[in-house]
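> forwarded from #structure-qc
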């Protein structure tokens, strides 16, 4: 079988507008989109830029837009017609490579700082089981940024809104931020639930994390 693969090519450092380039890629049943990208890189276009690492759905590095939907290229099956683009709402370094460091930095810089007086350690402390359970469920994030690519609130206010990834971090640590009302950080959320629908790890980002943060 052969696939027609359209890829959005763009180098922001060059004075060239984004453009699509089309490739013909052979594939077999069970092949993933990442395999198609590697074929293009090895046999057709060594200048194509994209990221991957584990190839096993654990790192999130290979996330891209596939036929207008965010997903891990190591997990999404090949098909006869594919359009591949970088994740939406995020800065692009080149082709399919987004600027993850810039996104992480913009999130962490806006997270509230943990204050309080310094004190000597007093050994292990007991955590409520509901807190432990929540942390375990929500701490499966691989920071693929698929949720950020579909968040309408983040698209509208990228400079002020933490986005699903930032809100997820707040929910997991809110007991450690005494005296700070973190609920206001979730106000821009539109409750569309798209972040949860596209999460490759099936984390209850909206139904459990964000709704709890907003007090719903």
């Amino acid at each position: 079988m052969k696939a027609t693969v359209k890829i959005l090519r763009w180098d922001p450092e060059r004075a060239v507008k984004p453009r699509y380039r089309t490739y013909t890629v052979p594939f077999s049943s069970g092949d993933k989109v990442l395999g198609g990208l590697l074929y293009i890189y090895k046999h057709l276009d060594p200048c194509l830029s994209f990221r991957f690492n584990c190839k096993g759905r654990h790192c999130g590095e290979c996330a891209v837009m596939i036929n207008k939907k965010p997903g891990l290229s190591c997990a999404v099956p090949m098909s006869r017609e594919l359009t591949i683009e970088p994740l939406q709402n995020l800065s692009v370094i080149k082709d399919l490579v987004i600027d993850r460091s810039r996104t992480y930095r913009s999130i962490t810089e806006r997270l509230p700082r943990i204050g309080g007086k310094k004190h000597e350690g007093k050994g292990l402390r007991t955590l409520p089981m509901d807190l432990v359970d929540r942390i375990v469920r929500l701490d499966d994030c691989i920071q693929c940024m698929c949720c950020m690519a579909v968040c309408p609130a983040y698209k509208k206010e990228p400079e002020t809104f933490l986005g699903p990834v930032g809100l997820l971090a707040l929910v997991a640590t809110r007991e450690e931020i005494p005296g700070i009302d973190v609920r206001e950080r979730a106000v821009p959320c539109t409750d569309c639930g798209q972040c949860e629908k596209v999460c490759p790890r099936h984390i209850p980002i909206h139904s459990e994390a964000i709704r709890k943060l907003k007090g719903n």
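QC bot note: The chain has a mean pLDDT of 87. The chain has two domains: 2-98, 100-113+127-214.
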